[in-house]
Write a structure and sequence with these properties.
Distance between the termini: 34 Å
Structural class: alpha/beta
Strand content: 15-25%
Shape: globular
Order of helices and strands: HHHEHEHEEHEHHEHEHHE
Largest sheet: 8 strands, mixed
Radius of gyration: 18 Å
């Protein structure tokens, strides 16, 4: 309940669609869509858990894909529903990523979990969200899970933003390992690759891709906004070429873990 209250207040006063329309946001959005498109096939049934205001669900439904969008917050769900047209095969439902029992088992070819992991603070809850997503995905189907990565915040907010003393005083950072800690009032949960590996360990999945969805873009927002369109498109091509490189993938604000259900 506490988490819901913090999130409801935050997203009622925040425009997620506008964030994804900035240059850095476009990099994240277009990268995510590129990987969705890589596995998208005609006739697929797609589920998005934590669909927000529908940026991805609506875009897919506009392409004729049958989409079920599940969103926790009434404010976001209302905006999402306002975007649905009669031509879309898009069903929007209120629901929680931790309990998808109201959906049919193994019914979806692709399941997108692009928001819930940002706001789940315990390992059991994160694991439960993964297990719930798997339960409604068919064997052989693809699950895409987004996370907020600690290094993006460490570099951009803690050091560049000059918040080192504050996060140490608030005990939000381990001064030896530089792990970052958060709780519901902080809104976003920050992880590293080893945390994600631990979450998926033992699940019936095969990793297809692990990538930085915004990478360097999150650290150079003003530079990207000042670029002309040609230079920005060149940067985007560069980003897409290197977003899976192991030597770069950790320096990002957001990542995408692309998994295939094996049984």
């Amino acid at each position: 309940m506490e988490t819901f209250q913090y999130l409801n207040e935050y997203y009622s006063n925040y425009q997620e669609d506008a964030r994804l329309l900035s240059r850095a946001g476009q990099v994240e959005y277009l990268t995510t869509m590129r990987y969705i498109e890589r596995y998208l096939r005609p006739g697929m049934r797609v589920l998005e858990v934590g669909a927000g205001t529908g940026r991805y669900s609506v875009a897919l439904a506009q392409r004729g894909i049958e989409v079920t969008a599940v969103e926790l917050l009434p404010h976001n769900l209302e905006i999402l529903k306002s975007k649905i047209t009669p031509a879309m095969k898009l069903t929007a439902l209120q629901g929680n990523a931790l309990d998808l029992s109201f959906l049919p088992r193994a019914a979806f070819d692709m399941t997108l979990v692009l928001g819930p992991m940002y706001h789940l603070y315990s390992e059991p809850d994160k694991r439960a969200a993964l297990e719930q997503a798997l339960s409604v995905t068919r064997t052989g189907g693809v699950i895409m899970v987004a996370y907020c990565i600690a290094e993006g915040t460490m570099i951009d907010y803690v050091f560049k933003g000059n918040h080192v003393k504050m996060v140490l005083e608030e005990k939000m950072m381990n001064p030896e390992t530089f792990e970052l800690y958060s709780e519901p009032k902080d809104l976003f949960e920050l992880v590293r690759r080893e945390d994600i590996d631990r979450l998926t360990y033992g699940l019936p999945v095969k990793r297809l891709h692990y990538l930085a969805t915004d990478g360097a873009a999150g650290f150079m927002r003003e530079t990207l906004e000042a670029m002309d369109e040609e230079d920005f498109r060149t940067f985007l091509r560069y980003h897409l070429a290197v977003c899976e490189r192991p030597d770069l993938v950790g320096a990002t604000h957001h990542c995408l873990d692309v998994l295939q259900k094996t049984k």
